[in-house]
Design brief:
Elements (H helix, E strand, L loop, with lengths): L1 E2 L2 E2 L27 H10 L4 H11 L1
Length: about 60
């Protein structure tokens, strides 16, 4: 995945039947612009780093 600050490796689950639908970004997307802005927005809402990590883990 290419972000604003460089490449980021994401290990996704293997789904042979194609039923898995990612919520963080769409299938076959290679660019994820604005990711840093979303993290900063969560931090600005007084979320701790652990809460942000948990939120991203739940989404993905």
């Amino acid at each position: 995945m290419l972000t604003d600050v460089g490449a980021m490796r994401i290990d996704d689950r293997r789904d042979r039947k194609g039923r898995f639908v990612p919520q963080l970004f769409g299938k076959h997307e290679r660019r994820f612009t604005g990711f840093n802005d979303k993290i900063v927005a969560m931090y600005a809402r007084d979320m701790t780093l652990r809460e942000i990590q948990r939120c991203l883990a739940e989404i993905y």
